[in-house]
Write a structure and sequence with these properties.
The protein is α+β, with helices and mostly antiparallel strands. The protein has five helices and four strands. It is elongated, with a radius of gyration of 24 Å.
Length: about 130
């Protein structure tokens, strides 16, 4: 004896439910991708303009600044100033004049300290936001 065949009405309902689930999954994946990569082009533009961020791995404000970019922060030129073990800052950061963090360098200009909203980074660099 074989399995009973589903009637056409229940088969139609299963296809509708299956299609709905697939659409929700696709929408979630697209939203995740957009949230995590929408600033990739902006971050790459900052790099092309010789913009650099100096920070410390234990600095809460640095973490806040990085979080604004999401996964796109990997494209932002970043200099880690913290010595492992928490014992001061690196020689590179001392030579650059980094004292407060995060600090930003825009081309050859002196360092500017503080957390900058992305809109302000856009204004300073000419890099457009999505």
């Amino acid at each position: 004896m074989g399995a009973p065949e589903a009637n056409p009405e229940s088969r139609k309902k299963m296809l509708i439910w299956g299609g709905t689930v697939v659409l929700f999954v696709l929408a979630w994946v697209a939203g995740w991708e957009y949230r995590n990569h929408r600033y990739d082009g902006f971050a790459k533009c900052l790099a092309s303009k010789q913009v650099k961020m100096y920070g410390l791995y234990w600095c809460e404000h640095c973490a806040d600044q990085k979080a604004m970019f999401g996964k796109a922060f990997r494209y932002v030129p970043y200099v880690e100033c913290g010595l492992k073990g928490g014992g001061g800052i690196t020689q590179e950061c001392k030579a650059a004049g980094a004292k407060l963090f995060p600090s930003w360098q825009f081309g050859a200009s002196p360092l500017k300290e503080g957390v900058y909203p992305l809109e302000e980074l856009s204004d300073k660099t000419g890099c457009s936001l999505p």
